[in-house]
Specification:
Bound molecules: pyridoxal-5'-phosphate
Number of helices of chain B: 17
Largest interface: A-B, 49 and 44 residues
Helix content of chain A: 40-55%
Radius of gyration of chain A: 17 Å
Distance between the termini of chain A: 24 Å
Strand order of the largest sheet of chain B: 3-4-14-9-10-13
Structural class of chain B: alpha/beta
Strand order of the largest sheet of chain A: 5-4-3-2-1-9-8-7-6
Distance between the termini of chain B: 59 Å
Number of strands of chain B: 14
Strand content of chain A: 5-15%
Oligomer: heterodimer
Number of helices of chain A: 12
């Protein structure tokens, strides 16, 4: 099994080795959409397919970085009051072998409201949280919280975007843990990525600066595109394209397996 | 102390040590503020911060700004003694800073002029903005028309309904108005849509945020532009009365008319300051917008401040008769001065605001905006508790034309007749 955190526990990391681990898919799921039972089913399938990791979205009322598809899914999940703290309890009840490495993705207010330290303690206690992806915790503001996440072994993923200047990207990558999330396009989730030379170049640069996996996400809406991305990136994140099918398990599983199949075929470009 | 609170304490300590001017270099007013935005927007904020810093140091920029305020917007706005109103209340004298007499009818134009001039300097071609009451949308559409920007305004669909006059004005001025049908369909949802637009278009677009809120440098920049209100009022007061007022009163949506009036008086220890939030129907979840009464510290739309949120940290929807105050969070600088004990906050509900709307119209021939009516209502309360020779200065942030239809509808619904 390939995984960004090769072992299931965030506390026990083997170094990622570029070119050795097989190519990697990171599906994004909105927890509790349409309900937690279904989420669990998707997680189990993702684990058995051997994905790199799953980005598990915790719904927030005001998702400013998300487009309509993920906004709508978050709204569906919030109808039954999916909450961060209870979600951690729930994860703790799932046998580890049914879970892929998990990165919790949500907006900073949910961590802040629970208390970042309480979150870390609880997340660590479950042994099932590899890290966190927080789109609105800027590199600048994360300074106050990075030591805390680190001391609990929770990876705080670093974001780089097409607007990030080179020297800034270098600093972000240096402080990143878990993986580097390169947002391939300007805008919100659910748009459509085009793989330009600039995108390839940036990924190439980032790979030179870090030993962490460099993963590309935002707007990957075709299995073929995912495969192409894995020719030059260490991982590919698929969000809205899968979230769109979340209400229909049959359709979700079919789409997910198409992505898995294409990603398995990917070969690193020379 | 936990490590987390230690990090927060560090921010507080830095401010206590009296960093001579707030915010600090990371955009914090004590523990409030910051830049909680996606990486896509961060470089734009850094660029904006630098552009603003350089522009404000440049006397030709300031000259352009104050010149346009004078010639285009009609500044300085008058300081007006509301004699009949004061007499009727039988207490302290009530003075009005007539921001309603600005071009387009509210204080919002001042910030729009400042940011649009800055955006032009930065080579931007397009302006976007959120709006609640529609006053900021109209102000942005106005400066866009004058300075030749294309312009798109995001507005919650509930606000589109109740501020229809302003929607028509924006269209007339050449702006596109995009109704936002998400969440509570009010100001918060309009800001989220504007942020989403900005992250798609950040190269050519300036987000002309309408209040002293959001990520750094917006709270600093908006306060700097709007401080012209307090600077003028202070001068006018000293000239007319020979002393400073005992109390200042302003309504608080995001906080721009309040901080604009208050900031130049912060060091005048004898001047008390009152920020008035929207009490709505009652102070229970979803029925009001009094962040300091019903909220707790959180992070929303770029800043750490007081936020209305439920026990899970989800943001609560709000209610107020006034669209401009109907918002779940408040500007970080006001949160700082509130906790420092410098500004007192209280709330006025829908009924009391509507009453003040009518009282000011009847006694002074001035129809105030519903937002400003909250400040007027609070000043009336305060006047009764103060001696007759004391002075209260109210920021009359806007005029009420935009609200006339909605108030008429509400009165009809209640079976009341004028
Ligand atoms: C007339 C008027 N006053 C006050 C406000 C509230 O905003 P702020 O708190 O930024 O002054 C608005 C907002 O739309 C307004 O139109």
């Amino acid at each position: 099994m390939s995984a960004i955190v090769p072992n299931r526990s965030s506390m026990d990391k083997k170094p990622f080795r570029r070119g050795v681990s097989p190519p990697a898919l990171i599906p994004y799921l909105v927890a509790g959409d349409p309900d937690l039972e279904t989420t669990r089913r998707y997680l189990r399938l993702a684990a058995s397919a051997g994905v790199f990791a799953v980005e598990l979205g915790v719904p927030f009322s005001d998702p400013t970085a998300d487009g309509p598809v993920i906004q709508e899914a978050a709204r569906r999940s919030l109808r039954h009051e999916t909450a961060l703290s209870e979600l951690l309890d729930w994860l703790g009840t799932i046998p580890p072998e049914e879970l892929p490495p998990l990165y919790l993705m949500t907006y900073f207010n949910l961590f802040h409201h629970m208390g970042v330290e309480s979150f870390c303690k609880k997340a660590r206690a479950t042994g099932r949280v590899a890290g966190v992806v927080i789109p609105d915790l800027s590199f600048e503001d994360s300074r106050d919280y990075r030591p805390l996440f680190r001391s609990f072994g929770i990876n705080l993923v670093g974001f780089v975007s097409p607007t990030t200047p080179v020297d800034r990207a270098r600093r972000i990558v240096r402080e990143a843990r878990g993986f580097v999330y390169y947002v391939g396009l300007m805008g919100t989730t659910g748009a459509s990525l085009s793989i330009t030379p600039a995108v390839r170049d940036m990924v190439g640069q980032l790979k030179q600066w870090t030993a962490l996996p460099v993963c590309l996400g935002f707007g990957v809406n075709e299995p073929r595109m995912a495969r192409e991305i894995l020719g030059f990136a260490d991982g590919v994140i698929v969000g809205s394209r899968l979230v769109r099918e979340e209400e229909d398990p049959g359709l979700w599983e079919k789409t997910f397996l198409e992505f898995v199949a294409e990603c398995r075929k990917a070969e690193p470009e020379r | 102390m936990s490590r987390e609170s230690a990090a927060i304490e560090k921010h507080k300590e830095a401010s206590r040590k009296g960093s001579p001017s707030l915010p600090d270099y990371r955009g914090y007013f004590g523990e409030f503020g910051g830049r909680f935005v996606s990486e896509t927007l961060m470089p734009a904020l850094l660029e904006l911060e630098e552009a603003f810093r350089l522009a404000w140091k440049d006397s030709s920029f300031r000259k352009e700004f104050y010149g346009m305020l004078a010639e285009y917007s009609g500044r300085p706005t008058p300081l007006y003694l509301a004699e009949s109103l004061s007499r009727e209340m039988g207490g302290a004298k009530i003075w009005l800073k007539r921001e309603d007499l600005n071009h387009t009818g509210a204080h919002k134009i001042t910030n729009a002029v400042g940011q649009a001039l800055l955006a032009r300097r930065m080579g931007k071609r397009r302006l976007i903005a959120e709006t609640g009451a529609g006053q900021h949308g109209v102000a942005t559409a106005t400066v866009a028309a004058k300075l030749g920007f294309s312009c798109q305004i995001y507005m919650g669909s509930e606000d589109v309904r109740r501020q229809a006059l302003n929607v028509f004005r924006m269209k007339l001025l050449g702006a596109t108005v995009s109704p936002v049908d998400l969440g509570g369909r009010t100001l918060k949802d309009a800001i989220s849509e504007a942020l989403r637009d900005w992250s798609r278009t950040v190269g050519e677009t300036h987000y002309l945020l309408g209040t002293a809120f959001g990520p750094h440098p917006f709270p600093l920049m908006v306060r700097t532009f709007q401080s012209v209100i307090g600077q003028e009022a202070r001068r006018q007061f000293l000239r007319r009365v020979g002393a400073l007022p005992e109390a200042l009163v302003a309504c608080v949506g995001g906080g721009s008319n309040a901080i604009g009036l208050f900031h130049p008086f912060v060091k005048d220890a004898g001047v008390r300051m009152y920020g008035v939030e929207a009490g709505g129907i009652s102070i229970s979840p979803g029925l009001h917008a009094a962040r300091f009464a019903g909220g707790s510290v959180g992070v929303l739309q770029g800043t750490r401040t007081y936020v209305l949120q439920n026990p899970d940290g989800q943001i609560e929807n709000t209610h107020s008769v006034s669209a401009g105050l109907d918002y779940s969070a408040v500007g970080p600088e006001l949160a700082y001065y509130r906790n420092a004990g410098r500004i007192v906050f209280d709330s006025v509900g829908d009924e009391e605001a509507l009453e003040a709307f009518r009282t000011l119209s009847r006694t002074e021939g001035i129809i105030p905006a519903l937002e400003s009516s909250h400040a007027v209502a609070y000043a009336l309360r305060l006047a009764r508790t103060l001696p007759r020779d004391s002075n209260i200065l109210v920021n009359l942030s806007g005029r009420g034309d935009k609200d006339v239809m909605e108030v008429s509808r509400i009165l009809e619904e209640k079976g009341e007749r004028l």
